[in-house]
Amino acid sequence: MPHLTLSDGERLYYEEHGAGKPLLLVSGLGGVASFWKPHVATLAQRYRVVLHDHRGTGASSKPLIDYSVSQMTGDLLQLMDHLEIARADFVGHSTGGAIGQTMALDFPERIDRLVLSATWTAADDYFRRLFDMRSTILSAGGIEAYVRSQAVFMFPPDWIRQRLSAMLQQEEDTIRAFPPAEVMLRRIQAIQKFNRRAELGNITAPCLVIGARDDMITPAYYSEELGRLIPNAQTVILPSGGHFFPVSQAEPFRNHLSCFLASTESAAS
């Protein structure tokens, strides 16, 4: 398994698939590359797809540090430099979308086209209460309770009902690979502090914002706000799919993504 040794000695797991223009797929709070499994084979037919496990998750190092979205962005920049990627298209889901906002604002020369999926502008009372509750589940109930509670936040009820057996097996895999609870708690604290709302008007990258109407983690009003504040952004709100709509609505999500990338590529040529 390929790993990058970061400047401070920690290790970052990554994958590459396909060839062509670089396309970064950056996952959310769970942080693992496998989130994008439904899309990799198709996208790799046209792009050099790069995925990674965030520091603190998956097969990457899990140090007990003060996590932040800026730190997560810095790790990704080190990966881009390691792979000799000067500039790339960026698809970020949830926390990955916060990383995408940071990259587009602080390092605009590294981003070509930006896709913000199920992400947010800044924590509000709802966001803080939700993640305080999730932190309490993890602190008081432990890792197993935290993992098993996540499906009701992430997926629509019919998705859970139709795929319960597969989900139970996936939960077992997640529990085995889960980081120490304190690492995840610090990652939650990091996203609660994120706020670049006042600067979103400075984003110059062509941008697609995509959300789902029934998303309980990052409600659709966040996506609508991002679409208003980012100049010339395209906004798509799927009628359903929950927070994990790139999984539960994989084909519609990928169709919107592919159409955006193709249309902006044609406009630039």
Secondary structure: elements and pairs:
Elements: E1 3-5, E2 11-17, E3 21-26, H1 37-43, E4 47-52, H2 69-82, E5 88-93, H3 95-106, E6 111-117, H4 125-141, H5 143-154, H6 157-162, H7 164-177, H8 181-193, E7 207-212, H9 220-229, E8 234-238, H10 245-248, H11 250-268
Parallel strand pairs: 3-4, 3-5, 5-6, 6-7, 7-8
Antiparallel strand pairs: 1-2, 2-4
Helix pairs in contact: 2-3, 4-5, 4-8, 5-7
Summarize the structure.
The protein is of the alpha/beta class.
Describe the protein's architecture and organization:
The chain is α/β, with parallel strands linked by helices. The chain has helices spanning 37-43, 69-82, 95-106, 125-141, 143-154, 157-162, 164-177, 181-193, 220-229, 245-248, 250-268; strands spanning 3-5, 11-17, 21-26, 47-52, 88-93, 111-117, 207-212, 234-238. The chain has a single domain (3-121, 195-268), classed as Alpha/Beta hydrolase fold, catalytic domain (Rossmann fold). The model has no long low-confidence stretch (mean pLDDT 95). The radius of gyration is 17 Å and the shape is globular. The chain starts with a strand and ends with a helix. Helix 2 (69-82) crosses helix 3 and helix 5 packs across helix 7 (164-177). Strand 1 and strand 2 (11-17) form a beta hairpin. The protein has an 8-stranded mixed beta sheet with strand order 1-2-4-3-5-6-7-8, with helices on both faces.
